[in-house]
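WARN retry 2 of 3 for item q-0093 after timeout on previous attempt; input resubmitted unchanged.
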Amino acid sequence: IVLFTLQLSSLLESGVNIINSLHIISNQTSNKYVKAILSDVSSKIKDGKSLSESLAAYPQLFSNLYTSLIYSGEVGGNIEVTLKRLADFLGKEEEFKNSIRAALTYPVFVSGVGLLTLIVLLYFVIPRLATMFADMGQILPLPTRILINTSNSLREFGWIILTIIFLFIFFLRRLYRSPGGRLLWDSFKLKLLIMGEIILKTEISRLMRTLSLLLSGGIPITPALDISISSIENQILKSEVQKFKEQIAKGTSLSNAL
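OK item q-0093 returned
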Protein backbone atom coordinates (compact mmCIF):
# COMPACT_ATOMS: atom_id res chain seq x y z
CA ILE A 1 0.00 0.00 0.00
CA VAL A 2 2.89 2.35 0.81
CA LEU A 3 4.51 1.57 -2.54
CA PHE A 4 1.20 2.00 -4.39
CA THR A 5 0.62 5.38 -2.70
CA LEU A 6 4.13 6.63 -3.58
CA GLN A 7 3.86 5.47 -7.19
CA LEU A 8 0.42 7.05 -7.64
CA SER A 9 1.66 10.33 -6.15
CA SER A 10 4.70 10.42 -8.48
CA LEU A 11 2.66 9.61 -11.60
CA LEU A 12 -0.05 12.19 -10.87
CA GLU A 13 2.61 14.80 -10.07
CA SER A 14 4.29 14.20 -13.43
CA GLY A 15 1.03 14.84 -15.29
CA VAL A 16 -0.24 11.28 -15.93
CA ASN A 17 -4.02 11.07 -15.49
CA ILE A 18 -5.55 8.82 -12.82
CA ILE A 19 -6.73 6.04 -15.18
CA ASN A 20 -3.34 5.69 -16.88
CA SER A 21 -1.56 5.90 -13.50
CA LEU A 22 -3.60 3.00 -12.13
CA HIS A 23 -3.00 1.04 -15.35
CA ILE A 24 0.79 1.55 -15.12
CA ILE A 25 0.89 0.53 -11.43
CA SER A 26 -1.34 -2.50 -12.14
CA ASN A 27 1.05 -3.66 -14.90
CA GLN A 28 4.04 -3.37 -12.57
CA THR A 29 2.58 -5.26 -9.59
CA SER A 30 3.09 -9.03 -9.39
CA ASN A 31 0.30 -9.54 -6.82
CA LYS A 32 -2.76 -10.82 -8.70
CA TYR A 33 -5.12 -9.78 -5.88
CA VAL A 34 -3.89 -6.16 -5.91
CA LYS A 35 -3.91 -6.17 -9.73
CA ALA A 36 -7.60 -7.19 -9.77
CA ILE A 37 -8.48 -4.49 -7.21
CA LEU A 38 -6.67 -1.75 -9.18
CA SER A 39 -8.48 -2.87 -12.33
CA ASP A 40 -11.84 -2.62 -10.53
CA VAL A 41 -10.95 0.80 -9.03
CA SER A 42 -10.04 2.01 -12.52
CA SER A 43 -13.40 0.75 -13.86
CA LYS A 44 -15.29 2.55 -11.08
CA ILE A 45 -13.49 5.83 -11.89
CA LYS A 46 -14.38 5.40 -15.59
CA ASP A 47 -18.03 5.03 -14.48
CA GLY A 48 -17.84 8.45 -12.81
CA LYS A 49 -16.88 7.66 -9.21
CA SER A 50 -14.10 9.51 -7.42
CA LEU A 51 -10.83 7.85 -6.38
CA SER A 52 -11.78 7.99 -2.67
CA GLU A 53 -15.18 6.36 -3.35
CA SER A 54 -13.58 3.64 -5.47
CA LEU A 55 -10.92 2.84 -2.86
CA ALA A 56 -13.53 2.85 -0.06
CA ALA A 57 -15.05 -0.29 -1.66
CA TYR A 58 -12.01 -2.18 -0.29
CA PRO A 59 -11.86 -1.33 3.45
CA GLN A 60 -9.63 -4.36 4.13
CA LEU A 61 -6.86 -2.58 2.16
CA PHE A 62 -7.75 1.11 2.36
CA SER A 63 -8.78 2.28 5.83
CA ASN A 64 -11.23 5.03 6.72
CA LEU A 65 -8.22 7.26 7.41
CA TYR A 66 -6.77 6.55 3.95
CA THR A 67 -9.98 7.24 1.99
CA SER A 68 -10.85 10.31 4.11
CA LEU A 69 -7.48 11.89 3.31
CA ILE A 70 -7.82 11.05 -0.39
CA TYR A 71 -11.25 12.74 -0.32
CA SER A 72 -9.81 15.86 1.36
CA GLY A 73 -7.07 15.96 -1.32
CA GLU A 74 -9.68 15.69 -4.08
CA VAL A 75 -11.76 18.51 -2.58
CA GLY A 76 -8.70 20.73 -1.97
CA GLY A 77 -7.17 20.01 -5.37
CA ASN A 78 -3.87 18.83 -3.86
CA ILE A 79 -4.20 15.05 -4.26
CA GLU A 80 -0.47 14.60 -5.07
CA VAL A 81 0.63 16.32 -1.83
CA THR A 82 -1.94 14.35 0.16
CA LEU A 83 -0.70 11.06 -1.31
CA LYS A 84 2.91 11.95 -0.42
CA ARG A 85 1.92 12.77 3.17
CA LEU A 86 -0.09 9.55 3.34
CA ALA A 87 2.79 7.42 2.03
CA ASP A 88 5.16 9.04 4.55
CA PHE A 89 2.68 8.44 7.38
CA LEU A 90 2.09 4.78 6.43
CA GLY A 91 5.84 4.20 6.11
CA LYS A 92 6.50 5.64 9.59
CA GLU A 93 3.56 3.65 11.03
CA GLU A 94 5.02 0.42 9.62
CA GLU A 95 8.48 1.39 10.89
CA PHE A 96 7.00 2.04 14.34
CA LYS A 97 5.24 -1.37 14.39
CA ASN A 98 8.45 -3.10 13.30
CA SER A 99 10.45 -1.40 16.09
CA ILE A 100 7.89 -2.61 18.66
CA ARG A 101 8.04 -6.15 17.22
CA ALA A 102 11.85 -6.08 17.22
CA ALA A 103 11.92 -4.89 20.84
CA LEU A 104 9.57 -7.70 21.94
CA THR A 105 11.07 -10.52 19.84
CA TYR A 106 14.11 -11.18 22.06
CA PRO A 107 12.31 -11.31 25.46
CA VAL A 108 9.51 -13.45 23.98
CA PHE A 109 12.09 -15.83 22.45
CA VAL A 110 14.06 -16.09 25.71
CA SER A 111 10.86 -16.67 27.71
CA GLY A 112 9.72 -19.36 25.25
CA VAL A 113 13.06 -21.18 25.36
CA GLY A 114 13.11 -20.89 29.17
CA LEU A 115 9.61 -22.38 29.48
CA LEU A 116 10.43 -25.21 27.06
CA THR A 117 13.65 -25.98 28.98
CA LEU A 118 11.73 -26.05 32.27
CA ILE A 119 9.11 -28.47 30.87
CA VAL A 120 11.85 -30.78 29.46
CA LEU A 121 13.66 -30.76 32.82
CA LEU A 122 10.51 -31.49 34.84
CA TYR A 123 9.14 -34.09 32.43
CA PHE A 124 12.29 -36.02 31.44
CA VAL A 125 15.35 -35.12 33.55
CA ILE A 126 13.97 -34.87 37.11
CA PRO A 127 12.25 -38.33 37.06
CA ARG A 128 15.64 -39.97 36.31
CA LEU A 129 17.29 -38.00 39.10
CA ALA A 130 14.41 -38.94 41.44
CA THR A 131 15.06 -42.64 40.78
CA MET A 132 18.74 -42.11 41.57
CA PHE A 133 17.90 -40.28 44.81
CA ALA A 134 15.45 -43.03 45.81
CA ASP A 135 18.18 -45.68 45.36
CA MET A 136 20.46 -43.65 47.66
CA GLY A 137 17.83 -43.92 50.44
CA GLN A 138 18.65 -40.50 51.92
CA ILE A 139 16.23 -37.84 53.20
CA LEU A 140 16.12 -35.13 50.56
CA PRO A 141 15.99 -31.36 51.24
CA LEU A 142 12.57 -29.71 51.00
CA PRO A 143 13.26 -27.79 47.70
CA THR A 144 14.35 -31.06 46.03
CA ARG A 145 11.22 -32.88 47.28
CA ILE A 146 9.02 -30.02 45.94
CA LEU A 147 10.79 -30.26 42.57
CA ILE A 148 10.29 -34.04 42.36
CA ASN A 149 6.62 -33.77 43.40
CA THR A 150 6.07 -31.06 40.76
CA SER A 151 7.67 -33.31 38.15
CA ASN A 152 5.50 -36.28 39.19
CA SER A 153 2.35 -34.12 39.08
CA LEU A 154 3.25 -32.86 35.62
CA ARG A 155 3.79 -36.40 34.32
CA GLU A 156 0.65 -37.76 35.95
CA PHE A 157 -1.76 -34.87 35.42
CA GLY A 158 -0.15 -33.15 32.41
CA TRP A 159 -3.16 -33.69 30.13
CA ILE A 160 -5.51 -32.25 32.80
CA ILE A 161 -3.27 -29.18 33.21
CA LEU A 162 -3.18 -28.70 29.42
CA THR A 163 -6.97 -29.03 29.22
CA ILE A 164 -7.42 -26.41 31.97
CA ILE A 165 -4.99 -24.05 30.16
CA PHE A 166 -6.84 -24.44 26.84
CA LEU A 167 -10.23 -23.92 28.53
CA PHE A 168 -8.86 -20.81 30.28
CA ILE A 169 -7.55 -19.40 26.97
CA PHE A 170 -10.90 -20.18 25.30
CA PHE A 171 -12.77 -18.41 28.14
CA LEU A 172 -10.48 -15.36 27.89
CA ARG A 173 -11.03 -15.15 24.11
CA ARG A 174 -14.82 -15.30 24.59
CA LEU A 175 -14.60 -12.68 27.33
CA TYR A 176 -12.40 -10.42 25.17
CA ARG A 177 -14.94 -10.52 22.33
CA SER A 178 -17.72 -9.21 24.60
CA PRO A 179 -17.91 -5.39 25.10
CA GLY A 180 -17.67 -5.62 28.89
CA GLY A 181 -14.82 -8.13 28.78
CA ARG A 182 -12.88 -6.01 26.29
CA LEU A 183 -13.17 -2.98 28.59
CA LEU A 184 -11.96 -5.03 31.60
CA TRP A 185 -9.01 -6.42 29.63
CA ASP A 186 -8.01 -3.01 28.21
CA SER A 187 -8.27 -1.45 31.68
CA PHE A 188 -6.08 -4.25 33.09
CA LYS A 189 -3.44 -3.73 30.34
CA LEU A 190 -3.11 -0.03 31.20
CA LYS A 191 -2.49 -0.91 34.88
CA LEU A 192 0.37 -3.31 34.15
CA LEU A 193 3.64 -2.27 35.80
CA ILE A 194 5.86 -1.63 32.74
CA MET A 195 3.73 -2.64 29.75
CA GLY A 196 0.88 -0.32 30.81
CA GLU A 197 3.05 2.76 30.27
CA ILE A 198 4.31 1.42 26.92
CA ILE A 199 0.75 0.69 25.72
CA LEU A 200 -0.43 4.15 26.81
CA LYS A 201 2.42 5.99 25.05
CA THR A 202 2.03 3.84 21.92
CA GLU A 203 -1.68 4.60 21.66
CA ILE A 204 -1.21 8.34 22.30
CA SER A 205 1.60 8.62 19.74
CA ARG A 206 -0.53 6.79 17.13
CA LEU A 207 -3.49 9.09 17.89
CA MET A 208 -1.37 12.26 17.57
CA ARG A 209 0.33 11.14 14.34
CA THR A 210 -3.06 10.33 12.79
CA LEU A 211 -4.61 13.59 14.01
CA SER A 212 -1.63 15.61 12.74
CA LEU A 213 -1.91 14.01 9.29
CA LEU A 214 -5.66 14.64 9.06
CA LEU A 215 -5.41 18.28 10.20
CA SER A 216 -2.55 18.98 7.76
CA GLY A 217 -4.78 17.52 5.05
CA GLY A 218 -7.39 20.19 5.73
CA ILE A 219 -9.93 18.03 7.61
CA PRO A 220 -11.67 19.95 10.48
CA ILE A 221 -10.87 18.94 14.07
CA THR A 222 -14.15 17.13 14.90
CA PRO A 223 -14.25 14.85 11.81
CA ALA A 224 -10.48 14.36 12.20
CA LEU A 225 -11.00 13.11 15.76
CA ASP A 226 -13.82 10.85 14.56
CA ILE A 227 -11.43 9.20 12.09
CA SER A 228 -8.52 9.18 14.59
CA ILE A 229 -10.63 7.32 17.16
CA SER A 230 -10.75 4.33 14.79
CA SER A 231 -6.92 4.09 14.99
CA ILE A 232 -7.04 3.51 18.78
CA GLU A 233 -7.21 -0.13 19.86
CA ASN A 234 -7.63 0.34 23.62
CA GLN A 235 -11.34 0.79 24.44
CA ILE A 236 -10.69 2.83 27.61
CA LEU A 237 -8.62 5.40 25.69
CA LYS A 238 -11.11 5.31 22.82
CA SER A 239 -13.95 6.32 25.20
CA GLU A 240 -11.78 9.13 26.64
CA VAL A 241 -11.05 10.54 23.17
CA GLN A 242 -14.76 10.28 22.35
CA LYS A 243 -15.49 12.41 25.45
CA PHE A 244 -13.11 15.22 24.56
CA LYS A 245 -14.28 15.11 20.92
CA GLU A 246 -17.79 15.86 22.23
CA GLN A 247 -16.39 18.71 24.35
CA ILE A 248 -14.66 20.20 21.29
CA ALA A 249 -17.89 19.91 19.31
CA LYS A 250 -19.53 22.06 22.02
CA GLY A 251 -16.86 24.76 21.68
CA THR A 252 -14.08 23.73 24.08
CA SER A 253 -10.52 24.19 22.79
CA LEU A 254 -8.39 21.11 22.06
CA SER A 255 -5.87 21.97 24.78
CA ASN A 256 -8.56 22.37 27.45
CA ALA A 257 -10.29 19.17 26.35
CA LEU A 258 -7.02 17.24 26.52
